[in-house]
Specification:
Number of strands of chain A: 12
Largest sheet of chain B: 7 strands, mixed
Number of helices of chain B: 0
Shape of chain B: globular
Radius of gyration of chain B: 14 Å
Structural class of chain B: mainly beta
Radius of gyration of chain A: 14 Å
Structural class of chain A: mainly beta
Number of helices of chain A: 0
Helix content of chain B: under 10%
Number of strands of chain B: 11
Distance between the termini of chain B: 38 Å
Largest sheet of chain A: 6 strands, mixed
Shape of chain A: globular
Order of helices and strands of chain B: EEEEEEEEEEE
Strand content of chain B: over 45%
Largest interface: A-B, 28 and 27 residues
Oligomer: heterodimer
Order of helices and strands of chain A: EEEEEEEEEEEE
Strand content of chain A: over 45%
């Protein structure tokens, strides 16, 4: 069965600093990977997705993620964090089974210091 | 364009009381529908999904049930709530026939507190 691990439960960065959120997946076939962001008390918004091709994927709000098959990773990055980026971030992998549901990681809560 | 609505946004219920959370999707037909739960400090757990009217699949055994009485309506219910049912409940949809690598679209969630 597929699984997703986000090793960092909480991360705090200073505004303007760079950011990297880690995601490791376990999946038997070619993975289809997603990053979602959740603002407090809100639903999830899609940041970016990887299906195939270029392993560096650009998303909304200045985020990007790099797929590394050899490391089973799909880390999310942003060069310069803004205070409005404070939220919870979820990595997910799609499974080709009945219902085609997504399996999510445990999430990483990002806090931004002024 | 497609939209998804969940209500209520917040709910406080005593232990042992019933529950009904509703989710509706507009602007699409025959979507795949999903209920996820997010417990405090934890990730998202898939509870139920539905690929059509009256078709419900449960991912985890629990105190909850789901129903899909209409094409774009998905209801999460319980006859008697437990304290452990507290959490943030998210409804999501994906277009019917979409590739399994297409993203899910989420509602704004319902914060349930069982007291």
């Amino acid at each position: 069965a597929q699984s997703v691990t986000q090793p960092d439960i909480h991360i705090t960065v200073s505004e303007g600093a760079s950011l990297e959120l880690r995601c490791n997946y376990s999946y038997g076939a070619t993975p289809y990977l997603f990053w979602y962001v959740q603002s407090p008390g809100q639903g999830l918004q899609l940041l970016l997705k990887y299906f195939s091709g270029d392993t560096l994927v650009q998303g909304i709000k200045g985020f990007e993620a790099e797929f590394k098959r050899s490391q089973s990773s799909f880390n999310l990055r942003k060069p310069s964090v803004h205070w409005s980026d404070a939220a919870e971030y979820f990595c997910a992998v799609a499974s080709n089974n009945a219902g085609n549901m997504l399996t999510f990681g445990g999430g990483t809560r990002l806090m931004v210091k002024p | 364009s497609q939209t998804i609505h969940q209500w209520p946004a917040t709910l406080v219920q005593p232990v042992g009381s019933p529950l009904s959370l509703e989710c509706t999707v507009e602007g699409t037909s025959n979507p795949n529908l999903y209920w996820y739960r997010q417990a405090a400090g934890r990730g998202l757990q898939l509870l139920f999904y539905s690929v059509g009217i009256g078709q419900i699949s449960s991912e985890v055994p629990q105190n909850l049930s789901a129903s899909r009485p209409q094409d774009r309506q998905f209801i999460l219910s319980s006859k008697k709530l437990l304290l452990s049912d507290s959490g943030f409940y998210l409804c999501a949809w994906r277009g019917q026939g979409s590739s399994y690598n297409s993203p899910l679209h989420f509602g704004n969630g319902t914060r349930l507190t069982v007291t």
